[in-house]
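Is magnesium ion placement plausible here? Inputs below.
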Amino acid sequence: RAKDQGRNMYQFYTEGMQDKEVMRLELDKDLSHALANDEFILYYQPQLDLTTGKINNVEALIRWQHPRRGLLAPGEFIPLAEESGRINDIGRWVVRAACKQLAKWKGTPYRNIRIAVNLSGLELDDDDLVGDIQAALKAEQVPPSSLEVELTEEIFIQNIEHNLNQLSRLRKLGVHLAIDDFGVGYSSLAYLRDFPVDMLKIDRSFITHVTRRHDDAVITRAVINLAHNLGIQVVAEGVETQEQLNFLRHHSCNLAQGFLISRPIPPEDLERALEEGLLFTGVTASS
Ligand code: C2E
Ligand code: MG
Ligand code: MG
Ligand code: MG
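Reply from A.M.:
I modeled the complex. Tokens:
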């Protein structure tokens, strides 16, 4: 233990710990005001339909406009929000904000866009979740099929019965369900049989070297085939090169998402990019 290694060491260790803990507490306190202060925003990252070359799907990714620290990525505050339980309120805000965006896009060229939102598995514990999502859709008068919910495989490890029930209710509403970061979780494949899944998102770690590593290519092709044989669509995450895009299209992956097509951007930027045809679609003279 640090304590046994002399006084200086001990002090250094505890001060470091304190700094970290102080920062954490401070951020948690800021987080408690963030909703009331309207400090969250949703960025949108388009998903390219590899069959049509069109964009009809986007993923909403939360950002926190922190009053002193600038724009924070979810990795800097979502884990904290999960620990404190604030994730439930944040998740409700995300769903409502996405519904508002869908309502804004009604009657515009973007009316067919579906928005995927990320939910933390913890949010499924709350029995009010499905009712609240339904209420948000109704309040903004948007069809449930315009909304997709992304969850990671962790939800298939614990509380399986309860989670299955929640997801079935959500799917019955007409909301689409996607499994995020597919392939890196610890769950069994049995859930693909038992849960009403619409979409698998192949984790970025398989896509990064998919054109250079045989094993990643084999896994990616197998996931696409497995999903398609079960009537499930596939999104590839983290597509950064034209070669990856070509590979995915060649192997009948449905959608591609990644920096090659676009980074996550504010809705106004997305609208402008769509309007002006600025997004990369991978359509070259030869394809
Ligand atoms: P995710 O849902 O798997 O989202 C994809 C992440 O990968 C995003 O990071 C996105 O910016 C990044 N990404 C997309 N394309 C590429 C690429 O080509 N290359 C690389 N290197 N990265 C790419 P982001 O926005 O920082 O979000 C991180 C994670 O935070 C998300 O992973 C999701 O798990 C979580 N998250 C985001 N928004 C929310 C939210 O509203 N609620 C909850 N509970 N979690 C959220
Ligand atoms: Mg996601
Ligand atoms: Mg993901
Ligand atoms: Mg991820």
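Short version: The two ends are 62 Å apart (CA to CA).
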